[in-house]
UniProtKB/TrEMBL annotation:
UniProt-listed InterPro entries: DNA-bd_dom_put_sf, HTH_17, SinI_DNA-bd
Protein name: Helix-turn-helix domain-containing protein
Domain of life assignment: Bacteria
Organism this protein belongs to: Nocardioides abyssi
Helix-turn-helix domain ranges (all copies): 14-62
C-alpha cells in the first residue's frame, strides 16, 4: 500500500477545543486565543474549531521553557 502524499490529512486525529484545553490544562478561552492569534493551527468546521493532535503536540514542544 502506498504512503499518503505530503499534506494528506486523511489519517489526522482532530481534537475539539475542550480536548486541547484539557490536554494542556488551560481554559478553552486560552485555546481560542491561541487559535485566533495564529499560534495554534486549527480547522474551522461550521462554528467550531478542530485542532490536529500533531499541531497541539508541536505547540507544546515549541513552548517548553528551560528554567534551570
Amino acid at each position: 500500500m502506498a504512503a499518503n502524499p505530503p499534506g494528506d490529512i486523511s489519517d489526522a486525529n482532530f481534537l475539539t477545543v475542550a480536548e486541547v484545553a484539557a490536554m494542556m490544562r488551560v481554559s478553552k478561552m486560552t485555546v481560542y486565543r491561541l487559535v485566533h492569534n495564529g499560534d495554534l493551527a486549527a480547522v474551522r468546521v461550521g462554528r467550531s474549531f478542530r485542532v490536529r493532535q500533531e499541531d497541539a503536540d508541536e505547540y507544546i514542544r515549541r513552548s517548553f521553557y528551560d528554567a534551570g
